[in-house]
Amino acid sequence: MLELARDRLRRFGARVELLEGDYRLIEVDERFDVVVALGLFDYLPDAATVARRMHGHCQGALVATFPRWTWTRGPYRAIRYGLFCDCPIFNYTRAGIESMLGQSGFRRVSFKVANYVLVVVAEPFG
Prior knowledge:
By secondary structure, the chain is α+β, with helices and mostly antiparallel strands. It has a four-stranded mixed sheet. The model has no long low-confidence stretch (mean pLDDT about 90). The chain contains four helices and four strands. Strand 1 (about 30-35), helix 2 and strand 2 form a beta-alpha-beta unit.
């Protein structure tokens, strides 16, 4: 997945930096213009903690995806990931995301629905 991202972002040269590792554990001492978290919050039991950490690394915008529960997909994912893969998954509502990001220091939270995913763009305070 990172190789695909590197290929697609190569045209931006040194303006893009991709880091690989467990974000909850990786050492990052800088702030970035954009923090991207795609497909991450599906699997985080401690989403608020991660959102606060992202706020500390974000100086421009957070772009993140959050799965949303639907009757057509929710039960299937719960069984597939929860029972068969022993991997709990988490679903979100707009109100829950907005509250969590607001408490983490983000403002101007905007949403776009893309199938079963909420695409969120948020700006940090200050």
